Amino acid sequence: MTTANNSNQHYKGLINRYKKYLPVKEGDKIISLSEGNTPLIKLENIPKQIGFDGSIYVKYEGLNPTGSFKDRGMTMAVTRAVNEGSVAIICASTGNTSAAAAAYAARAGIRAFVLIPEGKIAMGKLAQAMMHGATVIQIKGNFDEGMSLVKEVADHAPVTIVNSINPYRLQGQKTAAFEIIEDLREAPDYHCLPVGNAGNISAYWLGYSEFYDKKQVKNKPIMAGYQATGAAPFIHNKPIKNPETIATAIRIGNPQSWDMAVNATVESGGWFEQRTDEQILYTQKLLAQKEGIFCEPASAISLSGAIADIKSGKIKQGSNIVCTLTGHGLKDPDTAISQSTKPMKTINATLDDVKRAIIREL
Ligand SMILES: *Cc1c(COP(=O)(O)O)cnc(C)c1O
């Protein structure tokens, strides 16, 4: 009798699944938490509501082991670091990279150092970094300042940078495009996603292009990247000194993968657009209440942008769209609760009071 544990069917993570496309060698120790293989969910209610007759799918990356797509890059970066003898990793982070770095370092038995902007990271992400035993260093500065400090310190200390300037990160992250192609049996017409440090849009384009070049698929999507209005260097075509947005995961003014991200939009015939914090939060709630899918604010910008571009006609009726939902809504409970329009009721613990509370709502 075979059990899930010893069967070959047991999913062992994206490096194992896609090893022929990834920088791993026979005999490498793989550091994995079975990341990847996330669901591609077809939206049922929102397309009808906005009068769209094509299909919108969301790639729900919040279901990765630490709750964001960062796990895809981290399994690859930490695997390479460990096999090359590194005993410590470091990153600057708006939150999710630190959560993933902390978890994969714990799995590998190495040290993790994470630099985060003081007071500007969502509670769930901070809890993860602390729980997994990373050394959490808060800086009185933003992500971009943290990023330049990390680059400097790595020249002076024996630590491996696991931000997306580490090329292995993008190699791991490109597998999300492979999964989408395998699920849909083709590439979508449009791929919409949030852009912060710009690693992910670059990684998706790598993945789509690789499968296209290797004749695994006949088409490539148009890439659309969305930034928050207060943190939109690609819209202004220059770095932003003091980026601001409620979507803290994309509160970045000086994206490290600038050229690759621009290349992804240019080569694919795509674009960058911006959305306000209000539009982001509106869409986060729409997705939660019309489809039952809870993502974090930064993630919701992909769907917010897609809807706006459908309405403006930039995205054609009848097309297939994939939006990446980069992180889980539970990462940022404070923003979710503060946006709730239904106040909680407190009543006496009696049957009558409960009945009355329900009947009032029906
Ligand atoms: C990191 C992150 C982003 C931005 O991705 P980049 O690769 O930095 O552009 C968007 N959303 C969430 C939830 C993230 O954690």
Residue share in β-strands: 5-15%
Biggest sheet, spatial arrangement of strands: 1-2-10-7-8-9
Number of strands: 10
The helix/strand order is HEHEHEHEHEHEHHEHEHHEHHEHH
Bound molecules: pyridoxal-5'-phosphate
Averaged pLDDT, please?
96
Termini separation (Å)? 51 Å
SS element count, helices: 15
What does this structure look like?
It is a single chain. With 362 residues, this protein is an alpha/beta fold. It has 15 helices and ten strands. Strands 1-2-10-7-8-9 form a six-stranded mixed beta sheet, sandwiched between helices. The chain has a four-stranded parallel beta sheet with strand order 5-4-3-6. Helix 7 (167-173) crosses helix 9. It is globular and about 65 Å long. The structure holds pyridoxal-5'-phosphate (PLP). Residues 68, 70, 96, 164, 194-200, 249-250, 296, 298-299, 326-327 line the site of pyridoxal-5'-phosphate (PLP).
